[in-house]
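In the design runs reported in the main text, the only information available to the sequence generator was the tokenized backbone. The following block is the verbatim input for one such run; it is reproduced so that readers can re-run the procedure and compare outputs position by position.
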């Protein structure tokens, strides 16, 4: 494909993503995967170029664009090479009209920027929420050390924050490497790895990952526990949890998987009540800390959506509290930078449970925030996270 055709393809792809974002439909990643699957004639270099254009255009637009062309026009204001590619050629986009309007630029919709600022993410730090993220991997301590893994990789990797982190350039095809197939590492943002260490999971303990999803943090816990003890991964999403057994087998991790019935979770956890050493609550949230990877997520948010996530977090924290033994602990994590889904949620839990106490974890990077700890892209070079450690009486 020539460069103009790539621009038109990015416009077409963005049109599908914008429709999905407005309707709370499939994610941009899913839309792109399906779009390229239906166009197998598009070569790998063209796919990469089209995807980069689409994601850069999403990052360039603060509000949801009217359509993909408006999004590319906004990107063209920032990239002087792009306007010439609107050339009207056979497979390229039509020339830019004299009065044609580009989408609105910016980091996010105005109301969301105000909410971020009120949560301590000031204007000078907000642009970093949309920078391209590096690729971080976690050496699987059940199979190999970080230094041993670094020697074996086909490209140079730099140690990142955390004991097992290696950092590689964005787009490195690590999942095609034999080292990945052998379970020597997992793809995981350095921030996600660090907030797992705040759990301080120990060999021999009983640990529950209450919102395990696909199991990225579950596998990190298994490595911390050296496969000694009992690790139970729970979720209400059958599709997401179904990926964990295969991932655990590849990593050599011993994990029990438990599918819970949404709204009736206590029934599925009754046998664990009051017996668990530690519960990880990697709570559902708005994902404001992951915009580097999912820039379209900011177009899907409303105040009502954030309120709904806050209510879910309160519910899951109360579930976790019923599982913990006396003196046990909860690790509360969100990949959100909004206080409503972080420090406020912890403060509300402590108000409901005044005998519990917060023990803010001091990670090697990040800053104290509220009754916990915060990592941000601008300050720490990781995805954004809030983490708190809560101790039962």
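Verbatim output:
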């Amino acid at each position: 494909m020539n460069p103009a055709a790539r621009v038109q393809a990015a416009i077409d792809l963005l049109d599908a993503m914008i429709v999905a974002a407005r309707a709370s439909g499939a994610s941009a990643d899913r839309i792109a995967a399906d779009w390229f699957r239906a166009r197998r004639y598009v070569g790998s270099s063209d796919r990469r170029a089209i995807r980069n254009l689409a994601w850069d255009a999403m990052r360039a637009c603060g509000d949801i664009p009217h359509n993909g062309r408006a999004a590319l026009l906004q990107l063209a204001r920032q990239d002087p090479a792009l306007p010439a590619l609107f050339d009207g050629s056979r497979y390229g986009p039509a020339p830019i009209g004299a009065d044609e309007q580009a989408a609105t630029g910016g980091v996010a919709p105005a109301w969301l920027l105000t909410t971020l600022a009120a949560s301590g993410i000031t204007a000078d730090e907000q642009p970093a929420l949309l920078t391209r993220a590096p690729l971080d991997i976690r050496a699987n301590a059940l199979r190999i050390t970080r230094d041993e893994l670094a020697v074996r990789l086909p490209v140079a990797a730099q140690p990142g924050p955390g004991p097992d982190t290696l950092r590689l350039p964005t787009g490195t095809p690590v999942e095609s490497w034999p080292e990945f197939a052998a379970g020597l590492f997992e793809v995981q943002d350095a921030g996600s790895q660090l907030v797992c260490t705040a759990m301080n999971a120990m060999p021999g303990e009983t640990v529950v990952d209450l919102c395990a999803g696909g199991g990225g943090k579950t596998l990190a816990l298994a490595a911390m526990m050296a496969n000694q003890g009992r690790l139970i991964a729970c979720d209400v999403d059958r599709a997401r949890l179904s990926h964990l057994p295969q991932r655990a087998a590849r990593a050599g991790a011993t994990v029990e998987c438990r599918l819970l019935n949404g709204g009736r979770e206590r029934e599925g956890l009754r046998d664990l009540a009051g017996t668990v050493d530690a519960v990880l609550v990697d709570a559902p949230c708005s994902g404001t800390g992951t915009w580097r990877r999912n820039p379209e997520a900011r177009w899907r948010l409303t105040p009502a959506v954030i309120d709904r996530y806050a209510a879910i977090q309160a519910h899951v924290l109360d579930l976790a509290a019923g599982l913990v033994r006396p003196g046990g602990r909860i690790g509360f994590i969100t990949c959100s930078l909004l206080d409503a889904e972080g420090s406020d949620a912890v403060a509300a839990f402590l108000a409901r449970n005044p005998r519990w106490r917060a023990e803010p974890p001091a990670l090697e990077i990040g800053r104290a925030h509220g009754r916990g700890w915060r990592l941000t892209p601008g300050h720490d070079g990781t995805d954004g996270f809030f983490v708190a450690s809560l101790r039962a009486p």
